Every structure is written in structure tokens, then in C-alpha cells.
TrEMBL record, chains A, B, C:
This is Aromatic ring-hydroxylating dioxygenase subunit alpha. It comes from Pseudomonas triclosanedens. GO terms for molecular function: dioxygenase activity. Pfam families: Rieske, VanA_C. Keywords: 2Fe-2S, Aromatic hydrocarbons catabolism, Dioxygenase, Iron, Iron-sulfur, Metal-binding, Oxidoreductase.
């Protein structure tokens, strides 16, 4: 259950730098590569000749060459040539709409005709020299909605990430959730608390004292299909918290692009964008390493939760106030999937 | 096919010493831990909040804390508290009857109301300073009844354990099987034979000559649901065999608790209890190591036998005299399972 | 979909030298061993006593002893003895027709009554001192017909084996395919080309210059059920190519026996027979190592192709001129399978 007419992050440019990449997105097996003039392309990973995966091939003169018998596939999904063959009658393979933007490759697994690049989520921090970004990728065996739940309810930090970003005060500060159109916002503010280890490191990284009380905030924003961007930060207490001037705080945006592979597995692109010391590459590396370790702590929990839910499909889960972010996000997803289904049905009825 | 209203060994105390243990018993996913006052508890391994496995959590003040969002579960299966929540309406999870006795944790996977601790199999050698015990645990992919067959027909020692406890004379001494109520006893006596390597080691461990003829015995006792306790030993020949005075023999009890995980996998708790040199820890370790190696020799055979049987479900196996112990044990198990089914049906009819 | 009334290569003698071998052929689990007088035998890998795999046992006095409880199985599939038992009433297990010839063990997985050893494919180079042979075995997760396709269309060498035997001129020389009875022959001749690395090594191995133009040939012969024998070679250009006198060429026969394990997995026996420098064991080893590396390059392609086809069972593949060898081979296999089915149906109707 995921919208297919939407932009998902498929991969990062480094993943297609050396050779084509085979990756399944929303149940579709795709091959990603750079075609003519270095433009990214995404096709069905299936050679029309004998069914070999095109991702085992290579790129030559902008064409994707099948590594089995040399069929040369064009970016449109039509065979351009093959040694010793006339290819005009070869069946086309599916071409997916794909865009490179903000340092990511985005793909639209559904109807390519509806794929408007303007719909790609705007990332104000990307391509902006005042900001630095570092991130990574995890492959996790769970429904993408379990990861959305995870990120829209940060009380889990107290338990899953107790030694880094968790602290008791998260539990004690009730979050507030609101829906604005297709966006869900859950926010939590903690006042006059001591920063946990990760944030003490960030304060020091920004030249601020790490042993004084701070105000801390978490503002989670879900937008379809499965992006969760979280404004997080701490400011020395009494300077206005989230609204404190830059010299009193360390803040950043946690970036989560969750791409369904199948109904029960995901490609999870995680990262952090910050607007302090953006030129400090060592700090970027330190933050990335710390975040990678922290986010790795969620994997076993999510996979084992998924297994439990598969064993008990009928069981109703609780929907507490802390779950409101996930619950509202799922409602939006259900509405979008239903609308897709109705479009598809209408198309069939009118045919 | 296994009785659920019965006491099975679930784990040993060391397995829950550091943190909760998730283990599936008779198809039920359970979490085992020490709750209030160190008393052992067993619950369904499913947090009523979002379905996370409780076994990934920790114990605090006798409560099992979910490692995802901090729900505090009581030993009764009712949520005791959760940060920022009223928990009165939370659905309960299943609680299993559980007892700690004789150095094992015992669980009753069926109807807890019928779980009488007095029904736990009495182990006369446990908690007895005249005896020493050492053992281990194997996870094996086979129906628990294949392991009962294995242990109730020790002719396999000649083939599977040729270099340790097997000897040709086992084959030549026909076993006798009898049924006494719910107990099946298969015994075999060999007179005036040379002891095989494992028993020569045991003779030496007890300060006896290992190069003279012995009388050897094996008395296997099956009791439901799946315990097989085997009196084994050798005595210098001519002193009465099984009935010989202690100074002429080395004897012990092979302990086998076979706990079904699924229909085709088991947790196999094996060990040996002996009443000679009980204070000799080095001897306990030597015996344990030898036995672990010997019992490990059965694993491949049992798992490959299981695969063969799954491929040929209709095929009738032979039931020879040497198989009588397993055959009679299965009859008792069938009767017990049928009785459980009838109780369940009666309950439904009367509802 | 494979003929069962046919001779397949099951294993090589070294695989049964130490102990019995369990191997599945055409869906049948078999045990191979040397029985009385060292004659090879093949039985169902299932002990009639308790279903243990006989391949875990050992051979004694020409009988296969079950490693679980010592049942002694004869080569006919009838139990010969068992300690302490009368075995006359024991059910027989299935015996497969098996022959040792040309350095291979051949098995007939179908009706043993039809298994005529004269039907074993004649290998003119085997048991011939003018020839040397080296080979190996790969276990691959694909339909055996994908491997036949692979070997009957060597254009893939240009792509899969670019660094060893591939060369652009293969693509440019259209193959010719013809059918002669149950044999399919695809041949390709390239004139006045430079030899690729593998063939330069072979030229040097035969004491010939490797830096002059050569004529190169590939003559692939499929015979049922799944043998592909390929005459390959190079001759210094202008001496007659395939027909050149021996002193001007290096040639050999690529040997491929493809034995279905299941519908989607195979045992692939590959090798090379050559009639130059047959006494040079170091050359045999060098060729074997090179060929093993080259043929290993096909594995990922075939397994990933298989996965793609399983995902898209309805999709029609192309049948180009280069595919004619595989297409014709499949037609023969379909005809043979249909004939087997009709025989089986007739047998049932007449019963």
C-alpha cells in the first residue's frame, strides 16, 4: 500500500557513478544509469531479448548495453541497435520518469505522463552554501509506514537511542500534532533541560558551551509519499528556544526519505542538513557517523516489529496521542492510494 | 502436533540473567524475564502499543519496559504505566504459566488455569548435593517426535556415535519396551563387554579400571510431553550390573528435555546428571564437553531425516521392535492431544 | 520440464571415492555409491526404516549401511539385513539405472526398464590417449534450458567473457543453425582475426605463434537431454581454418553436461577435451583454471535472468537468428517430453 504516482528518492549519484544500478522501487525492478549527456535514466530492469537484467550491463555512448548479448537500449525504453539485428520490431520496455535534483535521483514509479518535476519536494537547504549535508542509506525489512510512525513519534528516542539523543524529558513533553493540507506536523518543545550527548557534541561543534541548560525542540513534518523532515535543535536556555538567534543555538534538519522496495521492505535514505559551520567537513563527517550509528539502532526494532505484525495481522494497535503523527500520515496515504485506485478504475471504465 | 497443556523446559536461568529472552515455544512467541522479587515471568512477546517485541526491552522495578516507547508491562500481562498515558483501557497481552525449578524455567503454553506446578516432572537428582549436573542447548530443525524416537532407540549409538558410546553389542542386545500409565520404558542390558571410549573415561573419572569387561545398561524413560531420562552406566562385570554396588560402577542419567518451537523445530536441552565424584567440577566439564560433541552428531541426521519426511508425507515408516519406545511414546502423545482437542470442542459446544 | 527417460551425468568418480553422495537429479533425491565389486549404484536417498538419508551412511561389503540404525541396503533397493531384524517384508526403495563410462557416472532418472546403456552419448575423445580432459562442476540456480540457450548462442562471449574468449568479430559473424534428427548444430566461422587471450594462451601451449591472424570457429552441437559439445579452435589464417592440418591450429571440444536438479536449478559439468599436447598435465591445469574462471562469469547472469523470468512468466522473449540454436533445442525437448507424457498416459489407459 503506497502511492505510485509520486516522487521517491531512488538513489544517490555516487551509486550510479561506476556502473548501472539495479534497484526495486515500489515493487518495480528498475535500472538507473546516466545516459546521453550524463542525464539520469530509469528503465525496467529487463532486456527485451532474453530477460537478462540490464543492470548487469554497461553504458556506451549514452546507451545501456545489455551485458549478455549486447542489445543497446535507449533511454526511452526502445532498443536502439543490436549487433547483426534489425531492432525496429523489438518490444519496448517500461521507462520511468526520473529527475536528478538536490543531490538525489528521484523516480516516479507510476504513470510517467503525470510525473511533473515541479512536484518534487522543495529542499530549501540543498544547493545552498550556508548549509552542509551528510547522510547514508539503510536497507530495512519493514513496511515503509512503520518507519514513518517511528519518525513521527520521537518518544522512542528515550528508549532506542538512550545513550545519544534520548532523554527522559522527551517523554514528559507531550507532542502536538496538526494537519495542514497534505502535511502533518508534530512538534515538541522541552525547556531548561540538559542536552544529551549528541547535542552536547553539536553545541561544541558550533563553539557553544555544552554544560548549561538548553531549550530543545523537535518539529517533524511528514509530506507524501514518505518524506519526514525534522527540525531539531537546542538553544542556550532563555534565548527564545526555536526562535533564538543563531549565535545561541545548534540546530539542523533531520532528513528522511523512505522508499518502499516491496510491501515489507524499504530503502531508507537518512541524513542531516545543518546551517552552522557548513564549511567544516570534519564536523559533517562526525555528525554523519554519529547519526548513522543512532539510526542503525532502529533497524532491529523495526524488523522485529514487522515480523510480529505479520504474525498477527488482525490485531488492532493502539493510537495514542504520541502516535497522532503517524496516524495522520497514514490517513493521507490512504486517501492518496484510494484516489489513485479511482483514477485507475475510471480509466478502465472509460476504455 | 504437541500437547499445549503441559510443562516444557523453556530456558535456563543464565539465559535471562542479563536481559529478557524472546523464545518461541509450541508455536507461541514468548518473552521470559525476572519480574518483581526476581520471580520469573512469561508473556506474549508483543507490546500492545505498536506490536514491538517486548524481549527487546529491559526490566525496571520488576516491570518489563518496552524498548520502543517505554510502555511498562506487568507480569500479569496488563500494562502498568506508560509515560504521559492513561493505560487503564490498554488491552492485556497473554500471560503464560511459568515456574522455576530444578535449575530450569518451565512454561505451560496452553491454558494457564490448568497449570498445576505439582505436575512438573520430579527430578530426584536436582538440588541434591550427591549429584552433579552439566548440560547444554541445541536448536534443531526437526519435529520433536523425531528426537523422542532417537532417544528411545539407542541402537543408533552404534552408527551415529561409533567413536564414543557406540558398540556392536548394542545392536545385538534386543531392547524390551513396556508402558506404565503415561510412561514408556525401553531397556537394554549388555553383559561382559568392553566399555566404549566415553565409558572408559567415566570409569577412570570414578577411579575404576577401564580395561576390564563390564556390564552395561540403558534404561530410557519417556514421560509426556517430551522428557526422556535415560539411566546409563557400566559396572565391572560380575558385580550385578545395574544393581552393582556403587564402588564397582560408573552410572548417570542422560537428561533430555525436548521443547517444540514449531511443528518442525525444537529447543533441545540435553545434559547428564551423575552421582559419582559430584564435587569434581573438572569432570563435570569434561563430561559436558564429550556429551555436547556426541549429541551434536545427531543434528544433521535428524534435520535431513525431517527434510526427507516432509518430501514424502504419505510414506509409511517401519515400526520394528527397536522402534517400540518411540511408537508407544507417540501413542501417548496422540491420546493427550486428542483429549485436549475434545476439551476444547466441549468448551465451544457449551458456550 | 525435462525428459526423465534419458542419460544424465550425475557425478564424477571422485565424488563417490570416499563416501556415498546424496544428489538430486531431475527432482529425484538419489544416493550414489560403489557397491559390490566397485560397481556404481544409485538408489532413492531414503531408508525404508525411518526415512533417514542413506547418503549419510557408509559402504560395507558392497552394501550401503544406513548411518542411523544400520540397515544394510542392497544395490537392487531391497534391504539385505539389519541387526536383530528379519528384513524380508521391508519395502523396497527405488533403484535407478546407472552406468560409469568415459570418466562420468550417468543416471537415468525415469523408467529403469528403458535404460539402455547403448544410448549414452558417445564421446570419441574419452578413453583416448591422444586427448586430454579437464573439467569441473558448478551448481547454478536456473532452468537447465537457460544454460542450453547460453551455450547454443556464443555471441554472449563478447559481453560476458570480454577479457578472455570474447571478441567483437563474434557479433559480426552470423551463426548458421541446422537440425539433424535430434541434434541441433549452430556454427560460426571468423576469418583473419586476432585471437583473444584464451586462444593466444592455447596457441602458445601448442607451440604456435600467438601474434598472427587466425581463422576461428565454434561448432555447437546440442543432443538430448542436455549435452552441448562445442568444437572450438583457431588456426593460423590461410591454412584452411577448421580443416587446417594439426600443425597450424589449436583446437578443442568444450564439454557441457547440464543436469537438472529441480525445475530451476542445475548441476553443470563443464570441461575441455583437447588433442594437442595431451600429455602436458600443467597445460591441462592451466586450461581448466582459465575455463573455470570464464564459465564462472555466466553464473550471476543466468541466476538473475532466471529471477527476472520467474517474475514475468507471461512475457514473450525474442527469438532472433542468434537464438535459433536454443529455440531448436527446446523444440526437441518439448517433443521428447510430450512423447514421455503420451507413453505414461497410454500406460494408464491400458491398465
Amino acid at each position: 500500500m503506497f502511492p505510485k504516482n509520486a516522487w521517491y528518492v531512488a538513489c544517490t549519484p555516487d551509486e550510479i557513478a561506476e556502473k548501472p544500478l539495479g534497484r526495486q522501487v515500489c515493487g518495480e525492478k528498475m535500472v538507473f544509469y546516466r545516459g546521453a549527456e550524463g542525464r539520469v535514466a530509469a528503465l525496467e530492469d529487463f532486456c527485451p531479448h532474453r530477460g537478462a537484467p540490464l543492470s548487469l550491463g554497461f553504458v556506451e555512448d549514452g546507451k545501456l548495453i545489455c551485458g549478455y548479448h549486447g542489445l543497446a537500449m535507449g533511454c526511452s525504453g526502445h532498443t536502439e541497435s543490436m549487433p547483426g539485428q534489425r531492432v525496429r520490431g523489438f518490444p519496448a520496455i517500461r521507462k520511468f520518469a526520473v529527475e536528478e535534483r538536490y543531490g538525489f535521483i528521484w523516480v516516479w514509479p507510476g504513470n510517467a505522463a503525470e510525473a511533473d518535476p515541479a512536484l518534487i519536494h522543495h529542499l530549501e537547504w540543498a544547493d545552498n552554501p550556508d548549509w552542509a549535508y551528510g547522510g547514508g542509506l539503510y536497507h530495512i525489512q519493514c513496511d515503509y509506514r512503520l518507519m514513518i510512525d517511528n519518525l513521527m513519534d520521537l518518544t522512542h528516542e528515550t528508549y532506542v537511542h538512550a545513550s545519544s539523543i534520548g532523554q527522559k524529558e522527551i517523554d514528559e513533553a507531550a507532542p502536538k500534532t496538526r494537519v495542514e493540507g497534505d502535511e502533518v506536523i508534530t512538534e515538541r518543545h522541552m525547556e531548561n533541560v540538559m542536552a544529551p550527548p549528541f547535542w552536547r557534541m553539536a553545541l561544541r561543534g558550533n563553539g557553544l558551551a555544552d554544560d548549561v541548560p538548553v531549550d530543545r525542540w523537535q518539529i517533524c513534518r511528514f509530506t507524501p509519499p514518505s518524506h519526514v523532515l525534522i527540525e531539531v535543535g537546542v538553544a542556550h536556555a532563555g534565548h527564545g528556544g526555536y526562535h533564538a538567534p543563531a549565535q545561541h543555538k545548534a540546530s539542523s534538519i533531520v532528513v528522511d526519505f523512505i522508499t518502499p522496495e516491496t510491501e515489507t521492505s524499504i530503502w531508507y535514505f537518512w541524513g542531516m542538513a545543518r546551517n552552522f559551520q557548513p564549511q567544516d567537513a570534519a564536523l559533517t563527517a562526525t555528525i554523519r557517523e554519529g547519526q548513522g550509528k543512532i539510526f542503525g539502532e532502529d533497524l532491529e526494532m523495526l524488523e522485529r516489529q514487522q515480523q510480529n505484525l505479520l504474525l498477527h495481522p488482525q490485531r488492532q494497535l493502539l493510537k495514542l496521542n504520541i502516535d497522532a503523527g503517524g496516524v495522520q500520515s497514514r490517513r493521507i496515504l490512504e486517501r492518496l492510494c484510494e484516489a489513485e485506485q479511482q483514477s485507475a478504475d475510471a480509466l478502465i471504465a472509460s476504455a
